[in-house]
Each structure stands twice: as C-alpha cells, then as structure tokens.
Amino acid sequence: MIRIYKDFPLAKKNAFKLDVKAYCFVSLNQKKDFLRLPKLIDLKSSPVYILGQGYNTFFKGDFQGIIIHPNIKGVKIVKESKNFSWIKVAQAEDWIKFVKFAVRNNLYGIENLTLIPGSVGAAPVQNISAYGQSLEDTLVSLTAYDIIENRFKKFNKRDCQFSYRDSIFKREKGRYIITDLTVRLSKKPKINLSYNSRYGGITDELKKFSHPPYSIQDIARAITRIRKRKFPDWKKYGTAGSFFLNPIVTKRQLLEIQKRVKGLEYFPLENENTRSRPDQPYAKIPAGWLLEEIGWKGKRIKNVGTSPNQALVVVSYGNATPDEIQDFTQKMQSEFQKAYKIKLIPEVNIV
Ligand code: EPU
C-alpha cells in the first residue's frame, strides 16, 4: 500500500530528534508499490530523499521535497552449504535485530557490526563498517528500485562500488531505493579481533569477562560494551554516531600532523600506487583523536556537545535546534581546519 502525507512531522524519524517536517512523505510496504510511484507522484521536479530510520540523517530544517520511506519486511535463509548460509533480508528490518539473529544462530560475519542503529537498507548506502568488519565483507547482492528507469535492478557486490563509507547509492543520492540484500554468513567460527585503539581493543575488552576460545556471543558482547562507552543512549539523546569522516591525507600531510601529534596512529590505504608519491592519498587518520587534541572531547555548547569518550560523536542533549547543531559542527570543522589545515567532511547525510 502507498500512503502519501503532506507536512509530515519527522521528529521521530531523524537521528537528532529535530522537530522538522517534510513537505511530502510517501510510505510504501510492498515491492510492487514502487512501480506505481511515478503515476502517483512527480518525482522529477522536487528533491527526493530516501529515509529509513533516519539514524544517519541531519535535517537542516524542514524538507521541501519528497521523502520516500519504504517499509518492506522479511528475513529468509535462501541457500545453505556445509560452511555458509545465504540470508535475504528486507530493507525495513532493524539492523541491530538482524545482527542478533545471526549471533543467536552462530552465523559469523556481522557480529562486529552489532549495535549500529538503523535499517538494513541503509547499511549498504554508507557501507557500514566498525571494529574490523565491513558490510561489503559479507554482502553478496542486493535489489534496488531505480527511480529514473522505473524498474528493479540487481546489484552484485562489485556493482555497489563500495569504498570507505561510500557506495553508488550514496553518490547517486535519491536515485536508488534498496529493497533487500543478501549476505553470506559463515557457519564455521571466523572471528575478527583486529580492532585496536589508543584506549584498548577487542581483546582487552574480552579479557574482562571471558577467556579463549571466544564465542560469537562473546565478541558481540565485547563490541556492545565498547560502543556503550563511546555513544550516548540514542533512545534518550540525539546522535548520528561519527558526525565526520576520518580524513584521507597524503604522506606529506601525515608527516606534518605527526610532528604536532606524537604517536598518532593511522591506516595506510590499500592501493599500492598511492604510496609512491608524497602528494597522493596515502592514509586515513583518526579525526576523533585529533579533535581530542584540540579540546573537543566532551565539549558542550548549549544543547549540543561531543561524547565525553569520543570527540567525533556529536550529541544533542535536549531540544537542540538544527541551527545549534549546524553552528556547533561548523565550529568543529573550522577549528580542525585551523589546527591541521585539513577539511573535515561530514559522514552524516545533511539534508
Ligand atoms: N580517539 C581518541 N579520542 C577520541 C576519539 C578517538 O583518542 O575522542 C582515538 C581512539 O582511541 C582510536 C582512534 O582515535 O585510537 C580511532 O577512534 P575509534 O576507534 O573510536 O574509531 P573512529 O575512527 O573514530 C570509526 C568509525 C565508527 C566505528 C569505529 C570503530 C568513521 C567515521 N567512524 O570511528 O563508525 O564505530 O571506527 O571501528 O569511520 C559511524 O560511522 O557513525 C561510526 C560510529
């Protein structure tokens, strides 16, 4: 069924719980509804934004275009082999519940992605990744409705053009609506403990309550504990996790920053070609660490602040307005630019 609303309130559908409205809001709950969309609504003359649960969206104010909110449910094991299960999951399923389902069934591959709020359909858009795992490691294929061509398309992993917090769906914003995805999870234990940080890693956390060999449930529990320390309770406060991307810098820039921030860890990019020249993208650097160095950890201005344990995480503590959040994050950007001569690019979708 398709439902169309005018001046729809979005307070319950955005990460910062902002009291904003959408000029037009369209919800659909069956795949066949999509094909009727162009007959019912003119999608070409207004901006279109596809909204799941809204956990990675910051509305600067009322949205003057059309919001499409698909609501298709279902989880199904579509294929099994001795070592793997292929699971097809519809876009409106809750990502956290889906990870719980996998963990409960001892299916390995997404347990480190536990406790990331949002819908399944949003996961490929920014290629969610955390604590050593990325969605692209297990994603096999997905289906998306193409608004321009008014038809469904199948994308295999390669077609999704995944990279760090990026995909074709993020780059061609407002064109594709993901309806379901298929992941291949391992029945054989395959754990990833590689994540480490300046303040400890997964293994340090595991040691606090368990001992090897660690189960998939142990891993999920360790990640949950780490995440709960860094992020405020998003049911209570407004937050979209990391507000900015970790910057990608050249070797020259990295050396400059390391002169100022001793011992700064970084992640070299995988492509060998990028390493040979000093002016090519070379490494990803932790914006949170650099923000902490310049006094942005646990900083607060009126109703907006950063998490006391993670400077990259912006939090609305109450009734922050879009302007307050914008002022706060612009200040973060400009002080970062001044200190390091590097631009912070938002990770959150700003609409
Ligand atoms: N750090 C500090 N101070 C801070 C924040 C971080 O010193 O205030 C240090 C950490 O101790 C660590 C390093 O900086 O040594 C990196 O921090 P962290 O491990 O917390 O991860 P991140 O790079 O800030 C990224 C993702 C997160 C993901 C984590 C864990 C981005 C933009 N963010 O954050 O994803 O959970 O890695 O893998 O890439 C999100 O996208 O919303 C998100 C939360």
Supply database-style keywords.
binds uridine-diphosphate-2(N-acetylglucosaminyl) butyric acid, alpha+beta, 20 strands, 4-stranded mixed β-sheet, Uridine Diphospho-n-acetylenolpyruvylglucosamine Reductase, domain 2, 351 residues, Uridine Diphospho-n-acetylenolpyruvylglucosamine Reductase, domain 1, 9 helices, Uridine Diphospho-n-acetylenolpyruvylglucosamine Reductase, domain 3
Overview of the structural elements:
The protein folds into three domains: 2-70, Uridine Diphospho-n-acetylenolpyruvylglucosamine Reductase, domain 2; 75-186, 2-Layer Sandwich (Uridine Diphospho-n-acetylenolpyruvylglucosamine Reductase, domain 3); 238-350, UDP-N-acetylenolpyruvoylglucosamine reductase, C-terminal domain (Uridine Diphospho-n-acetylenolpyruvylglucosamine Reductase, domain 1), CATH 3.90.78. It has helices at residues 31-40, 95-104, 135-138, 168-171, 202-207, 216-230, 251-260, 287-293, 322-340, and strands at 2-9, 21-28, 48-50, 57-58, 63-70, 75-80, 84-90, 129-130, 133-134, 139-146, 151-156, 176-186, 238-242, 248-250, 267-268, 281-284, 300-301, 304-307, 310-316, 349-350. The model has no long low-confidence stretch (mean pLDDT 96). The chain is globular and about 60 Å long. A five-stranded antiparallel β-sheet has the order 6-7-12-10-11. A four-stranded mixed β-sheet has the order 1-2-5-3. It is an alpha+beta fold and 351 residues long. It is built from nine helices and 20 strands. Bound molecules: uridine-diphosphate-2(N-acetylglucosaminyl) butyric acid. The site of uridine-diphosphate-2(N-acetylglucosaminyl) butyric acid has 20 residues, from strand 13, helix 8 and strand 19.
